[in-house]
Structure formats: structure tokens, C-alpha cells
Amino acid sequence: MQLTTSSGRRSFRFMISRMSHSVAPVMASASFRSTVVAPRSAWSFAIGLAACQIAFFASGCGGGGESVSAPPKAPDTIVVRAPFADGATIPKRFTCSGAGERPRLVVSGVPQQASAGGPADGFASGRARELVLLVTDPDAPGGTFVHWTAYAIPADRRVLPGPAREGRNSAGSTGWTPPCPPEGDKPHRYVFSVYALHTPIFLKQGADPDAVIRVLNGAVARGQTVGRFGR
220 with 147, same domain? Predict the structure, then answer.
């Protein structure tokens, strides 16, 4: 579970508030039953239900954090460069320990021509029409955590994201949520992937992470760079 944004912190406070409002009546009822009916069974029931509610709300911390599908592979390779070396530590300014800035990525090698012998229109296999940006943490507790999706990016753009539509991340907000792994964890890997698609995907702003990942099947090219960060 990751609380990576102010939205995540608000969700946590909301969780505590919900727990206090919903558990209190149960405890009050148990108090009555303990003086009138059956002390041990009443309190056991109240405590058990309280524990279940805590577990239920905790599972939804940050408005998400559920595991998503693994990103697919692609036949060709795009070169992706970030403001840090591949495999290196992500500078704090891009994380929750700093300002949480969105890193700018530079891409090259995006397929621009139709495959040999294929049709020469924009939907030809092998020619990119749109780019999709996907940032994931495969080391997050519970499964892959999506930090950012951006799509409807023109295939000729070389600095990302630029003007684009953005999807919902696993913290429950739209757009970028910075790396913020649990304190004490080993540094997590943050995979910055760029996909080239030969047809537009027409997803609206705020699309679900899994919806974005599903449309990446059939991508003509993919590139990635990985950063690491721990607290």
C-alpha cells in the first residue's frame, strides 16, 4: 500500500474517520449487551467486526493500489532517456521526499515508416501514430502500482509527456504521483515505459490503469528506462 499524494493522505484520514463513525455504534451496542445480555460474546463480536472494518478500509488506502496487469512487450525498441541514468537512483525532486516533480523523458527510434511491402497509410503495421507513457512500480506491496499514464501523444513528439491526456494512477488521482515506497523497504524499481501504437486508442481523460495497459497489446515498439528509489 502506498500513500503517495495529498489525495492519499486525505483518503487515509477519511478511512480513519469512517472507522471511528462506524465502529463506535458497534462498540456502544456491545457495551449494552455486555451489561444486559452476554458480556463475552458481545465484546468478541464488536472487536471482530471492528477488525474486519479496519482491514476493509486499509485495503483501499490511497483510493487504489490494487494490482494491475503486467505491461506487454513489443517487437521493436524505442530509446527512452530520463533525467537520471538507467538503473540509477531517482533524484529526490521527482519523489515524495522532494517536490514530486514530473520527470521529462526524451525518446528516439520511434517507427516512422510503414513496413516494407505494406500499405503506406498512417495505419500501416510498423508505423507509429500515437505514443503512450506508462510508469509502474513492480516492487510495490500487493502488486504492480501505476504511477502515471499519459496517452494521445503524437508519434513525432520527442519530449514527453507534452500535451496529452492522462489516466488515473493507483493512488486514485489523475496524472503523475511521485515514487513514495514504504519506509524501510529496499529501493523500489520505477519503470518508465513508452509504447508506440499504429492506431489511436481514443481513451478519455482519467482512464483506469488497466484500460490503458490493455490497449498496449499490439504495440509496434516499446522502450523503457528504470530508476530506483527508497526511503
Answer: yes
> Could you report the per-residue pLDDT of 167-180, keeping only the tens digit for each?
999 999 999 999 99
Does residue 15 lie in a domain region?
yes
| pLDDT tops 80 at residue 184 | yes
Rounded CA gap, 56 and 4, in Å?
19
Return d(Cα 161, Cα 153) in angstroms, integer: 7
Give the pTM: 0.68
CB 203 within 8 A of CB 209: no
Calculate the alpha carbon distances from 1 to 6, 36, 87, 180 in Å: 15, 41, 23, 10
Domain that holds residue 51: 6-63
For residue 69, being part of any structural domain is answered with no
Q: Is residue 1 part of a domain?
A: no
If phi over 0 gives left and psi between -120 and 50 gives alpha, with beta otherwise, what is residue 201?
alpha
